Amino acid sequence: MYLPHSIDWKALGTCLLLLVAMPAFAANQPCSGKKGGIAGCDGELFLCNDGSISASRQNCAARFGASGQAARPQTLLNGPDGCSCGSGSFCTGPRGGVYCLTPSGNKSYKRK
């Protein structure tokens, strides 16, 4: 049986480090997990496949190459009419939270 005389410990360590870190990279993506991935952008915000907005601090327009475009103005409404996620309009809650309504009727809050 042939055994190598020297093991490239640096390469082996790098491979092991990448294998261990891969789940951490996947967990830090916008709209990961139950949100089902990225459906599109609403200005700088990520729209998720479940209809909610991502709490990510990353800029969706910049990530997908639309950084030269001006961000769509975000309208704040008092009532729930017209503030669906993806419409560019948001509602303001009784304690000052800014949210949009998902297709299922749930509130998806915007990160401050």
Please, could you describe this protein's structure?
The structure is a single chain. Residues 67-71 have low confidence and may be disordered. The chain is α+β, with helices and mostly antiparallel strands and 112 residues long. A hairpin with a 5-residue loop joins β4 (89-92) and β5. The strands form 2 sheets. The chain has a 4-stranded mixed sheet, with no helix packed on it. Strands 1-2 form a two-stranded antiparallel ribbon. It has helices at residues 9-27, 60-63; strands at 38-42, 45-48, 75-77, 89-92, 98-101, 107-109. The chain has one domain (27-109). The longest helix has 19 residues, at 9-27. It has 2 helices and 6 strands.
What is the compact description of this entry?
It contains 2 helices and 6 strands.
Protein topology:
Layout: H1 9-27, E1 38-42, E2 45-48, H2 60-63, E3 75-77, E4 89-92, E5 98-101, E6 107-109
Parallel strand pairs: 3-4
Antiparallel strand pairs: 1-2, 4-5, 5-6
The low-pLDDT segments are 67-71
**Structural Rg:** 21 Å
Q: What is the typical, i.e. mean, pLDDT?
A: 76
Note the run of SSEs as H and E: HEEHEEEE
Give the DSSP E fraction (strand runs of 2 or more residues): 15-25%
Structural class: alpha+beta
Whole-number total of structural domains: 1
Query: Strand count, sense and closure of the main sheet?
Result: 4 strands, mixed
